[in-house]
Amino acid sequence: MTEQKIDAHGIQSSPSHRYDAGLANRIEKRWQQWWDEHQTYRTPDPGDADFDPDRPKFYCLDMFPYPSGAGLHVGHPEGYIGSDIISRYKRMAGFNVLHPMGFDAFGLPAEQYAVQTGVHPRVTTVKAIDNYRRQLKSFGFSYDWSRELATTDPDYYRWTQWIWLKAYGAFFDRKLGKARSIDQLRAELDSGARLVDGADWAAMEPSAQEEYIDSHRLAYLGFQTVNWCPKLGTVLANEEVIDGRSERGGFPVLRKPLRQWMFRITEYADRLLDDLQLLDWPESTRTMQREWIGRSEGASIEFPVGSDSLEVFTTRPDTLFGATYMVVAPEHPLVDRMLAEGGSNELRDYVMHARNRSDVDRMADSKEKTGVALGIDAINPATGRPIPVWTADYVLMGYGTGAIMAVPAHDERDHAFALAYQLPITRVVDGGGDLGQSACTGAGLVMASANEEISLDGLTTDEAKVSIIEWLEAGGMGRRHVNYKLRDWLFSRQRYWGEPFPIVYDSNGRHYPVSDAALPVTLPDLDDYEPIESDEPTPPLGKATAWVETTAGEAGVDPTILPPDTPVRRETNTMPGWAGSCWYYIRYCSPHAQDRFITPEAEKYWLLGDREEPSSSAAVPGEESFDLERFKIGGVDLYIGGAEHAVLHLLYARFWHKILFDLGEVSTPEPIDKLFHQGMITSFAYRRGDGSLVPIDEVEENEDGSHTETATGAAVEQIIAKMSKSLRNVVNPDDVVEEYGADTMRLYEMYMGPLEASAPWNTRDIVGVHRFLQRVWRLVVDEETGELRFSAAPDDDVERQLHRTIQKVGDDIERLAFNTAIASMIEFVNCATGTGVSAEQFDRFVRILAPFVPHFGEELWHRMGHEDSVACTDWPSFDESMLVDDLIEVPVQILGKLRSRISVPHDADESVMETAALADERIAELLEGKTVRKVVVVPGRLVNIVAN
RNA sequence: GGGCCCGUGGCGGAAUUGGUAGACGCGGCGGACUUAAAAUCCGCUGAGGGCAACCUCAUCUGGGUUCGAGUCCCAGCGGGCCCACCA
Q1: Interface pTM (ipTM) of the complex?
Q2: pTM of the predicted model, to two decimals?
Q3: Which nucleotides of B are covered by protein (CB under 7 A)?
């Protein structure tokens, strides 16, 4: 290996065996190929010949990328590098490590890109995946590529459809609090079980029975108001709508009633909420999920309106006596009825205006309270007095019942509305300020709340809640009620690039499932896959007439359900992009299984692992003595990915997992044990005095570190911003790999700061870690000859430093503190430079370095004469006694101020340290004429003398 | 408006349980090597003072707890993220 070194200026330079970008790139290519050939990172499954069942498992998962045409962003690899380091470390530490990678390839962006470029999404997706795979391999990640999957593979989405059918064929048994097969429900009803709502099953028409069954499915066809985005030509889940605009693209979203496939996720609200405390997840993410589920306790109360009644949900039933009017949402059925019965022009205008306004506009002038009286009264069940019913857009149809009792004295929104329309304000809770100014929303003592049957006066608001609910329940006017913000999950999309539903309809519009054996229902190849931008949802799959119009037999419907020659139409909606990512972590465990979505053996080993059911006697989650540290929920041991998925993907995946758990298909109640969010890689940008931003290439740095805009010479301020094309501060990982090598880039990204923190990319800093690798290289490689050279006898200081470094790096990897792990390795090399290391010492050092820079580590490992991969060796051990020096230097403080240092044996006890401190010349001098009141000694750390 | 997180040198950051603030890296300054430069190696690098040993100040600001506070508590200022008319 004697290549000529030519630098950027064409000048021959540097020794031929220097670790520079050229050499790094050659080393990296060579080892990537060698790993592929030797299947170094293949992970054996239970049952495989080379599987070692005695090793504990570690399932380390990355959020798989969505392959876009742009290729990997420099922020993508950050989490992947972290998970790769810990995977390599765990493997060396004796674990069977499952570390897979795949591609989330169905969904809107791929389709939008296809529409823009006119190239079929199948083609662009394959191309994008190839590019992503190439880039991922260029970083030397230790993925078991034999497990690679894409959600667009028919072999994969076959099981996505299968899981959906499982939910279609299941219902939520509220008594047991879990899902069961809907066939069991039918069988129990047939054998005389009573319906919850008291209806007589045996007396029902067959069609009514079917309707009843259908209305209990976990995956069901629901007619509801959904988020319709005309620009995207599809409906969206609540989670995909931000401030009235689509999460993707930011287009306006309208509310529209439609018949769509839904998931009954609301049945799981309590379990999704309660089980959050079992998870070793960032508190912020658990809080977001809690808020998204939005559980509130309160009461449901009926207000008589004529012969009918109006139901409201309230968290403040204790203020019922203060309800002086009611408000319904403009979309409320009562409003429709009033309009049908005439209604004022004012009402008509208001309702039309409110309904036609998109949610965006509705929020733009929030707080500004408007409304119109319906012209009817309801009866306050507590006071017996009539109160007017209004409609106003500050009440939302999507929450509670779409109607409220307004208590202006004790609710700010009601207060503002009452002031605007001169509605009466009646105080029923003591305390607070002037009700003419603001509402009194706090707790207090209830007053002016009594009728012939009940008095709440003098009770605390908490006590009053209990009393009034008892009274309402006794009178059949209301009941305790728990309400959730969480809505059922809209699962249909009017798009081409997604999983088809395994469902067909007969001529009466009844739906039938495709049998498991007929899966997958493959997505037909359409030339014209463009979404149809319209006011009415029109799925593009409808254009595949030959595919849509078929027979029950052709589609694979069980012949005992429907005769094979029955003409049927296929469902033309597709599943949303979230579907595939809900369960991919399961498929990785046995990606090639043909007859199961996961084999029982793989499920038991990779997901269940050594998880123990929390026994009934042990502390349970929620109790103070519960120790999350020792509690393993099973599933994925470590999941690394961005915080942007805190609600959507991570809530959906938990939901699917719980369905599969209930149905006995998986054996852990949660999919992810520990979750970690990596921070964002940002970039520097520059801001003018007027606040406008300047692209990075139009700015010059001055000698004093300040910055000026090149064109104008005006001073600009350096700020931190997201990478963006317009600021021209986007970094392409391919360029960095070419310029410094992948190992340097890996090291740089890990050295930027804590993995969970955002940090700005600073190209200038990369040379620091590159120089570190060069120093390691030079420590043992002769740059002129390429020969290795070691010191014959190990140096004692270097040896101690090595033990400390081995311990620190191991600890730091365990807590994902890669930046400080690298710093300690730099310190080791600084310590060994000049002194030199023995071959045996370097053998250990290269093993702790290799997880960070695998190609570099592998190269030196093999140069040292090893035949196998450094990835398959053991993590080196350290000796406790080597961690501390015999003599340590300890600070001596007087009144907390550092005054001197003493040298004492590392295990010196308090009296020895105190004596040594007081005997110190400088200390004795400073203490002259003072009285020592107290001496604080922290063995091994410091001495603090209190004297005056 | 509500919730959560965070403010440390010129810059990225370290300080794991309250115990020597600024590890490590970048940048900067000085030196060695070199005809010269690059690369490399060595030294210095929070501010102020002193010939020096050292001293004073210093972790956004102001209080507090403590022998001792970057770390804990209270108040304020600044920044980030999330939610936001949720009854």
Answers
A1: 0.95
A2: 0.92
A3: 3-5, 10-16, 19-21, 23-27, 38-42, 55-56, 67-69, 80-87
